[in-house]
# Entry
Amino acid sequence: MGNMKHESLRGLSIPKIGFGAWRIGGDSSPNHSLDSKSLTALRSALEVGYTHFDTAERYADGHSEKLIGEAVRGSGKKRESLFITSKVTPSHLKYDDVLNACENSLRRLNMDYIDLYLIHWPGTGTKYEETFRALNKLVRDGKVKHLGVSNFNLKLLKQAQELSETPILTNQVPFSVSDRSYVNNGMLEYCQQNDILFTAYSPVDEGNLRSNKTLESIAKAHNATVFQIALAWVISHPRVITIPMSFNPQHIKENFDAAEIELTKEEIDLLTEK
# Structure
C-alpha cells in the first residue's frame, strides 16, 4: 500500500513520514561494525517507499550521510524522486564554515544538492546574519533547495524568517504523545499559522514510548501497534511531518504504514488529553 499522506506547501509534496538517520553508521563517531545493519535499514526504507531521509553532519560524524549516499546509489532511485535533509552543526555557523560544511555534506552524500538544509541547533553567540548570508548563497547557487532550522524557539525562528531570502520550510523539534513542550510554548500553532512545516523528531521517544490503556485499546481497534498509533497521532496534526528511525526492517515498514491509519476524532482527542 503506497504512503499517500503528504503535506503540500511551497510547491512541494513532502511525506508525512520520513526516515530519520540518527544512529545510522554510529552515534557521535563512525562505527563501522554498524555498516551492514545501517545499509540494511536504509535499503529496506527505500524499498518500502520512503522518499524523505533526514541526516546531519553531526550524525556519526558524517558517516550517516555517506551510508545514505551509498544506499541511494545502490537503489537505482532517481535523485529527483527523493527529498534529502541534512544539517549544519552549531560550531559551523560562521560564513565560511557554513559553505564548507555544506560542501562536505554534498561530497559524503555524493549528491549535487540537498533538498533541505537546517541549522541543527542554535549556537551560542552566533551571528545569524552571517550564517544566513552563507545559507542564502547556497540556495542561490543551487546547492540547497530549501532552508530550515531545528531546536529553535519562537524568537529565533522569527529572526531566521527575517534573515532568510527564501521561506523557512521547517522547524524540527521533539514532539510525541508524551512530549508536548513545543505545543505548550506556541511553536506548533505558529508553524501552522505561518505555513511552516513542524518536523517531529523522537515521535515515539526513541523507542521508549510508554504504553497505556488508551494507546493499547486504540491499537487493538486498528489492528496496529502502539508505536503506529503514536505516530498516527503525531501526523494527525496539520503541517506536522515526522522522521522515526529504526534498524528493524519490520518496524521500518510499520512506521511507514502508520501514515495510512485514520484515527477518529474521538481517538485523537483521547490521546491529546493524555
Notes: The first strand starts at residue 6 and ends at 9. Strands lie at 6-9, 12-15, 19-20, 52-54, 83-88, 114-119, 144-150, 170-174, 197-201, 240-242. The chain has a mean pLDDT of 96.
